[in-house]
What does this fold into?
Amino acid sequence: MSRVLYPGSFDPLHLGHLDVIEHARELFGEVVVAVLHNHAKDSGMFHVDERVEMARTAVSHLSGVSVSEHAGLAVQAAEATGSDFVVKGLRTPGDFEIEQQMAHMNHSAAGVRTVFLPCRPDLAFVSSRFVREIAKYGGDVAHLVPRVVADALAERFDGSEQNRAPR
It folds into this structure.
């Protein structure tokens, strides 16, 4: 079996991500979920430490899956973790275009090959950006994210009127 790296910002982790993690584990045996961040940029909705902890909780039922934090490039994280491949999830044809270009660049720069895994069709519409937006305005995202993420979003957006859409 192989070790694969699944990189992303995971801000926040959603069920589409979890689906790709589960498929990668079935296919390769060991998955390192790499929560990537750039020290020069804003940390996002959740601080990287929070994202790592939420991801660890969300995958705790899966043997062979670990979560770690990495700054810099995905290929550097792949090297640091001894990963044989990078795994990227695909939802739409647009994802493929972007990810294919990145896969070619990663192979050219570091010799790391990328494997594309489509998520389940019933999760193809889920994105972290949409989850954040819905939660911000008081919408229910519990069916889109692991429980730990739903709880963190509910805490972050306590339902106060300032976070709701105008009437």
Notes: The helical segments are 15-28, 48-59, 74-81, 93-110, 128-136, 147-156. Residues 2-121 form a domain with the Rossmann fold fold (CATH 3.40.50.620). Residues 49 and 69 are 8 Å apart (CA to CA). The mean pLDDT is 92.
